[in-house]
């Protein structure tokens, strides 16, 4: 914990992923503040609360700045203990459970981890099955399984197809395959023959040639593959191919994997398979 | 939208993943309510707000029940338009930006998408590199790269190693390899020779034999591989092996991929590589 630097603690009795995401997007509105961000997951016992409180007070006294706590704590008891700290506390459950309880006319369950879909076997199996599908169908490995795919991503090598497919599988249980458009496919701007039967499942990723060059340079520095000329040629050919075949596509240059996945679903009208 | 069923809308000007996660955990506290959940991402224009409002009012009139909106909207203008709906509106930015602005003594940036790490090239490359590492090092494929791994997951086939590795890569930029303990490794309860140099990087996954059997039955029904006897034998051997070598492990039976990843990091003291 740096001196003169404020710390934001994201505290949860679960994974901490949700409060962390909330915290990131809130603090992004105050970029010039350079707040140190610390996630403390699984704070679900007296001992862990005490450790967390100690860490928070230490940051307060070392920096001389009031810490921030963004918390998602189901248990009233643990939440009250955290309230004892000197930090600014923003608790998701506290803010929203009361209005929801009023709406439903009943008290919340107060059971920790109820949110994590424990023993939700079907959902788990579907996601895992989708992950294995994405692994097996990466890089055009098994064209014969394209029949079973929900979506088939196409684009030049290193345009972001693989991580997007895996994210679609993990987060939404979608069976996402991908097929790299390689130089052999670029003699013509017609879709490669192998893809034609699946035109309705295709979705393209394109990328700024300069960014593509950067990414490829990290992989194979000073190769022809990573040259500006080659990157420009490939991107131009693939964009023409996608437009000509009227395959929808996204430019991946400025987008995170999460954004690529959700924008693609929204643009292509693909529904998730698991919640 | 079903009749007599209340709908909760998760509305965002970005991916919607954060409000969706908040919504899921809040509504999980009211399980008996059977609320239909609908995510509306990228609501960032007048036209899209109007479409969203129409959908919300339609759900209200068809069900006769007040809808819920959990929203994360940076723009004041769009937020005010949503306020016109008849739904109960819980807005993350509205609830928390004011206290944060007071603390920092300045106004929030009000820039949509600022939260998505646009053009954060380093972070993107690290995650992508980690994803490719996980793919290349799945299923013990390239033992020679274990040297570069942050963690090596070990466990029986279908204990959840692959999705956990991919999640660690995508979410935290960690280089996660995995190695399946197969029957040949089970003659002894000593660690397989190949793993011994990396003992400090190992983390075990174990699973309830009954659940393992279910998962394997879906893959290869009625095989020896999926028999109760075989599952019990493998799990017992691997647990003995992990205990004997003092390799930390988690039981994957009741945990989601997100929980496995975050608990593992917390238990093994592994720090994320990207925020």
From TrEMBL, chains A, B:
Binding site for ADP: 155-162
GO MF: ADP binding; ATP binding; phosphotransferase activity, phosphate group as acceptor; protein serine/threonine kinase activity
Enzymatic reactions: [pyruvate, water dikinase]-phosphate + phosphate + H(+) = [pyruvate, water dikinase] + diphosphate; [pyruvate, water dikinase] + ADP = [pyruvate, water dikinase]-phosphate + AMP + H(+)
EC number(s) per entry: 2.7.11.33, 2.7.4.28
Keywords assigned: Kinase, Nucleotide-binding, Serine/threonine-protein kinase, Transferase
Pfam families: Kinase-PPPase (PF03618)
InterPro entries on file: Kinase-pyrophosphorylase (IPR005177), PSRP (IPR026530)
Enzyme class: transferase
Protein task: Bifunctional serine/threonine kinase and phosphorylase involved in the regulation of the phosphoenolpyruvate synthase (PEPS) by catalyzing its phosphorylation/dephosphorylation.
Entry's family note: Belongs to the pyruvate, phosphate/water dikinase regulatory protein family. PSRP subfamily.
Name by which UniProt lists this protein: Putative phosphoenolpyruvate synthase regulatory protein
Species of the source: Microbulbifer donghaiensis
């Amino acid at each position: 914990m740096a001196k003169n630097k404020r710390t934001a603690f994201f505290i949860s009795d679960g994974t901490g992923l949700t409060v962390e995401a909330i915290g990131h997007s809130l603090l992004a509105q105050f970029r010039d503040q350079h707040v140190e961000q610390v996630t403390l997951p699984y704070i679900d016992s007296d001992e862990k609360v005490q450790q967390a409180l100690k860490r928070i007070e230490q940051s307060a006294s070392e920096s001389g700045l009031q810490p921030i706590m963004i918390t998602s704590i189901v248990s009233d008891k643990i939440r009250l203990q955290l309230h004892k700290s000197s930090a600014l506390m923003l608790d998701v459950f506290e803010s929203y459970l009361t209005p929801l309880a009023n709406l439903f006319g009943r008290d919340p369950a107060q059971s920790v981890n109820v949110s994590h879909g424990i023993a939700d076997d079907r959902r788990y199996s579907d996601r895992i099955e989708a992950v294995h599908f994405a692994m097996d169908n990466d890089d055009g490995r098994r064209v014969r399984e394209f029949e079973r795919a929900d979506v088939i991503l196409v684009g030049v090598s290193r345009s972001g197809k693989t991580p997007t497919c895996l994210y679609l599988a993990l987060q939404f249980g979608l069976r996402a395959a991908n097929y790299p458009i390689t130089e052999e496919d670029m003699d013509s701007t017609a879709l490669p023959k192998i893809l034609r039967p699946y035109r309705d499942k295709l979705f393209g990723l394109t990328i700024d040639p300069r960014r593509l060059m950067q990414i490829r340079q990290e992989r194979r520095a000073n190769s022809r593959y990573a040259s500006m000329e080659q990157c420009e040629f490939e991107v131009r050919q693939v964009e023409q191919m996608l437009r000509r075949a009227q395959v929808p596509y996204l430019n991946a240059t400025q987008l995170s994997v999460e954004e690529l996945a959700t924008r693609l679903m929204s643009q292509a009208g693909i529904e998730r398979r698991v919640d």
